[in-house]
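Q: I have three molecules that I believe assemble together. Could you output structure tokens for the complex as a whole instead of separate predictions?
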Amino acid sequence: MSAPLLEVRGLTKRFGGLTANEDVGFTLQAGEIMGLIGPNGAGKTTVFNSLAGFFPPTSGTILLDGVAIEGLPPEAVAARGVARTFQIVRIFRSMTVLENVMVGAMLRHRAVPKAAVVAREALDFTGLGRRAHDPAGQLTVAEQKRLELTRALATGPRLLLLDEVMAGLTASEVQEAVELVKRIRDRGIACVVVEHVMEGIMPIADRMVVLENGRKIAEGPPAAIAVDPVVIRAYLGEGYLAPGP
Amino acid sequence: MRRRSPALALSLAGLAAAVAFPLLATKVTWQNAAILMLMTAQLGVAWNILGGYAGQVSLGHAAFFGAGAYVSTLLSVKLGVSPWLGMVAGAVAAGGLGVLVGTPCFRLKGHYFAMATIAVGEIVQAVVNGSDALGGAVGFNLPLGETGFWGFVFNRSKLPYYYIALGLLLATVGVNWLVNRSHVGYYLRAIKDEPDAARSLGVSLTRYKMIAMILSAGLTAMGGTLYAQKELFIDPGSTLSTSLSIKIALVAILGGAGTLWGPVLGAVVLTAIEEATRIAFGGTGRGTDLVVYGALLVVIAVFQPSGVMGLFTRRAPRAVPPPEPEARFP
Amino acid sequence: MTVELLLQTLLSGVLFGLVYALVAIGLTLIFGVMDIVNFAHGEFLMFGMYAAFWGFAFWGLDPIVTLPLTTLLLFAVGVAVYRLVIRRITDAPMLSQIFATFGLMIFFRGLAQYLWKPDFRSVDHTIVAGKVAFAGLQFGLPQVVAAAGAVATTAAVWAFLRFTRLGAALEATAADKEAAALMGIDAQKMFALAWGIGAACAGVAGALLATYYPVFPEVGSTFILVAFVLVALGGFGSVVGAFWAGILVGIVEVMGGFLWDPAYKMVLVLSLYLVVVWFRPQGLMGKA
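A: Yes, here they are, computed for all three components at once.
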């Protein structure tokens, strides 16, 4: 087994007296999809924010390809190949769809024409190509989420952090998103996916990590997680029926 | 290419009109008003890089304007350095001042940033006011000394000032245009729209805000030098006041912040309103001009909040046709 | 001797600082409720001063006697400004809001010049004239009364926000407009109320100030800058923060003038402000 792309050890984050993450640890191989689930307030987004450099963890290490990145600012983390989306979309509303993605592409391609080409490719890859010249604010919510993903992808990441990209989508849109994440993985980009939509994450995740109250309570393949009594009690609820193996 | 040609034609026509104007309007009052307009426009365009594109609303730009006016004046009065070199020195000094201002202030957002820049502007003004070496509250009269191009003093005709102001304005617009087209322009707009998202894409907020600050401050300072050379008199009240800072911002906002030509349009409108109200109602010393001027500003802000430029920017036809209706409607 | 002088200076700084605070409280209230910085706030103060002056000049009524009238008048002015102008720019970008209130400032100053000429005027004699001695220190009675009035008004505003239903509704609107709307609070009414109270506070400060400070159309410009500093220093929207910041700034200002050079006292105040926001960008008592 090769060295992991991402290794998180003992990640703890406190805000004043509130502990958002406590001793969270997991590893991720290149090209792997990991689902990060847990009830509301379990600390999933906090993990993302620590990984992406939005705030330094109180303690713990985050190794990307064996190099510590915890405490680096977001822009430095992005430069090292970690891209993210936001739970509440943050697209650049004064720009067109293409320009949004170009901002992402500029991380590796400063020249505007080259960035435009890269952005165009990314848009075609995610299926937003025909919306390229529309103002970003005119997109539907589903499209805005996809735009954010495209923009992140255009930075040329090794690791993509997707924060609830499927929330609020219709069933067919979820299906499209699932296909898209698979195709991203097939490009060799590892993904950590925070998701509430179980039918979105269960079929594609290689592994799941479950958080509750800031701690990791379970880890394993989706099929095992779905029947894990600890997880069911903490999160999935009594009424949840696990998809058959 | 085809899409841009009307704008290009319009720009060329505007340029031709601007070049020809003082040759046709030979009355000194007209020329003076036109120079004032150009100088005001240049300041608005310079402000726009920071306040418009990057969205960092500075209400302390007079500090940079004053830096330009004072540095070139001091160099020329005390050391006999040509104001042209002084202009460059002033721009560099203002850039440095900008870094000094930006380092603490860029940590602040929105109103907090605006208030902090007011504070900086007031501090600079108070320091100059209290410093004898800097002329104190009295200011400086610039010696007529060496006239002509190198001396940057022209007393026979207003024309040289007019063309220098026009040249400086075009240069400033040019810098804006270049910034706008480069990755810096994209990054600045990204920072303005969604700073966190910009960071997640590898954009260093401090670095790019600082670039905008240095360019904006430096260009504003060049306007300050031009002002000093044209008026041949500077004092804290005329070059460092917060009302000047606010006017600089106003020009850009009035025209349309974050657009290339908005501040120019804003300067035309603002100067026209100012001059018209002053000529029509001024001179009585009773503030009628201020009443009309203030009321007009309020009316414009209320009814055209995106700036006058908003009246002209009908959306250009898009190269790509609008999307067909979604196939997957429920 | 020097200790007494020091105390004297210190306390006179506090006295003036309290009046500053009263001007700033109105500003911070308006900002807290609707995220608008009112550049014309100094002009509310100016109107308060003129109201006091004209009451005196026409009817020989003391500014202290006409204080309730001035308060009501300025409340009405604040509400009118909200209804006529601010209501229309509530959701406009910050830039056009700056633009609008700045235009108002010029308009009001021009109006005052037009109506009352740019001259300096003052209330020649007032019932609060004279000095008070206290533990070997001496203060002007007008200053003391103004400071006491400022404290009383501040306390009244604070109590209003804290203990009345209307005040609670105002605070709720400031905290979260949408949640407040869901609770059935009419945001428009709250905004108008904030402008009314904000202008009234400045009006009270103006009337109190008129007993010892000259009245002229641009008088607001001196106070608005300090008020901005107090609002940012205390934390945008924090009445209590503005109050303490007022005292602090009053002290720094006089001590700066006393120990260093009066010409630089504002430099000191503004530098203090920059240092504070460097460490606490949200101000002393603002929400993070």
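A: One point stands out. The mean pLDDT of chain A is 88.
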